[in-house]
Input
Amino acid sequence: MKTNTQTLASPAGLLAAVEFAARKHRDQRRKDVEGTPYIAHPVRVASLVAGVAGIEDLAALQAALLHDTVEDTGTNPEEIERLFGPEVRALVQEVTDDKSLPKEERKRRQIEHAAELSPKARLVKLADKIANVAELTTTAPVGWPVERKLAYVDWAEAVVARIRGSNAALEELFNKVALEKRALFG
Output
């Protein structure tokens, strides 16, 4: 499935986003026992957008790779815009949480604002939720009890419920992954 905007004619723009995200996340690790390099997460999100959703839109793929840079690395939106353009900046900002707010408020706002996301931002959000739920058994934070993992699945389902109708393939995969985790943890 191609979107009606710029498609990936050359890998240069995509590779620039990979390099930028890798540099920005270079000192970050997942909170799992192995300390998995964080960059694996945004690469997985972009892979889901491209491979499962079939999206070839350069801005959507770049935003998937960069979706956590503003929120987690101190990157400013202006830097994203300068390097990747206003559309990528806008998409990244749509899926960026305000880290100055308490965690529960950020989670509430994600549910509340999910329905307002643009179509491309919805793809990134769906892929992010798939990756995070799937990773609850491979790169889950050390010390998370089953109840917390199930609460995360509940919350992810509430976010995804607000953006249903965005991409059937991603939604089907999310349903499968969430069901598998419920069966495993329940």
Remarks:
- Residues 46 and 61 are 6 Å apart (CA to CA).
- Residues 1-5 have pLDDT under 50 and may be disordered.
- The chain is about 65% helix and 0% strand.
- The first helix runs from residue 12 to 24.
